[in-house]
Design a protein that fits this description.
The protein has helices at 2-20, 24-49, 55-60, 66-73, 92-96, 103-122, 127-130, 135-152, 155-180, 185-194, 206-219, 224-235, 239-271, 278-283, 320-337; strands at 298-299, 306-307. With 338 residues, it is mainly α. It folds into two domains: 2-76 and 124-302, no CATH class; 308-336, no CATH class. A hairpin with a 6-residue loop joins β1 and β2. Bound molecules: zinc ion (ZN) (2 copies).
Length: 338
């Protein structure tokens, strides 16, 4: 799973480099790549979750598709203030200091925002309609919510936020892998077959669970709410399932945030007078930098257009494709070495 996310962060770092060099065409190209890898990651995560014993619960609230996860967190409203036209700027300090000095103010704000978000979720179209909202409409929707903020924020700042979220999602993903044990699809299949309840007693034995809970308790000493929740979790037979579910939810939320900042960077580039859209990136645009010319994620005509790998041109990329990339890199380095 984290292999896919490494690809996202690889492309995200290229976005940052392109922004630093003020090469916005290259930035658009790379943010498109990062977005595609994020979609690959989502597919893989969904496949893995489907193997978990509490699959239904994990998908219940946020839905089964990336589109739904995004719109659960951002139902055409800001996730933080809950308004269709974000007004977080009025509470910037409270938002930034929400864990420290401004905790109480933040709790008050959050109560109102949560109510507005619940209402906004109710007025979203049905899932079957949600799935069909085209990508450019989704970008436009985010621009409606955050357009003012994007307009008044420097592109470097927006890119910092984007990178921050990519990093946070990566962290959540490694947490899930630590909990489940590093795995590929085959390993996970085997693990679930041996341990359908996902108790992971082979992975963490009784003694390890105990030590983990002791350490967690002492690190949260004084925080009664957390300690009592830890106590309940320790007694719960299904604690590992519960933990896996809540980390899956964290990941879903984090990648919705990555999507939100993706739209911010793309919309900012558009506001800077570059009339480039994310759709053009997938179609292969004539404004691509020289070395990226001819790269297109789509093939076919009209509505029958399908996604494909821009490197091998196949609708289903196989491992020899990244291998060919590695071979090129190795050979290039040998040429340099000579
Ligand atoms: Zn807001
Ligand atoms: Zn390929």
């Amino acid at each position: 799973m984290s292999n896919f996310w490494l690809q996202v962060s690889n492309d995200a770092s290229k976005v940052a480099e392109a922004i630093r060099r003020q090469n916005y065409e290259l930035a658009m190209y790379n943010i498109g790549n990062a977005f595609c890898w994020m979609c690959c990651f989502v597919e893989r995560l969904k496949e893995d979750i489907k193997k978990f014993p509490n699959e239904t619960y994990i998908f219940e609230e946020r839905g089964k598709t990336f589109q739904e996860w995004i719109l659960y967190r951002y139902p055409f409203c800001c996730h933080h203030c809950g308004y269709p036209l974000c007004n977080c700027v009025l509470y910037s300090e409270t938002m930034e200091e929400r864990k420290d000095d401004h905790k109480d103010d933040f709790e008050k704000l959050k109560g109102g925002a949560d109510k507005r978000l619940t209402e906004a979720r109710k007025s979203l179209p049905q899932d079957s309609v949600l799935e069909k909202i085209p990508l450019n409409k989704l970008f436009e929707g985010f621009n409606k919510v955050y357009g003012n903020k994007v307009f008044s924020t420097h592109i470097e700042d927006l890119t910092f936020h984007y990178l921050e979220e990519v990093g946070e999602a990566g962290h959540a993903i490694t947490v899930l892998e630590t909990l489940i044990g590093h795995n590929n699809t085959d390993e996970l299949d085997k693990k679930i077959k041996d341990d359908p309840e996902l108790k992971l007693e082979k992975h963490f034995n009784k003694d390890q669970w105990k030590k983990a809970f002791d350490q967690a308790n002492s690190s949260k000493k004084g925080n009664e709410d957390v300690c009592s929740a830890l106590g309940k979790l320790e007694k719960n037979e299904k604690r590992n399932q519960i933990a896996a579910a809540s980390i899956c939810h964290m990941i879903m939320d984090e990648i919705a945030d990555v999507f939100s900042w993706t739209t911010a960077v793309v919309n900012k580039i558009e506001k800077l007078g570059k009339q480039h859209s994310i759709i053009e990136v997938f179609e292969g645009a004539d404004w691509f930098p020289k070395e990226k010319k001819g790269k297109s994620y789509l093939h076919g005509m009209g509505d029958a257009k399908k996604f494909r790998c821009p490197y091998c041109g196949e609708p289903s990329c196989k491992t020899w494709c990244p291998l060919s990339n590695i071979l090129t890199k190795v050979s290039e380095s040998q040429v340099k070495g000579n």
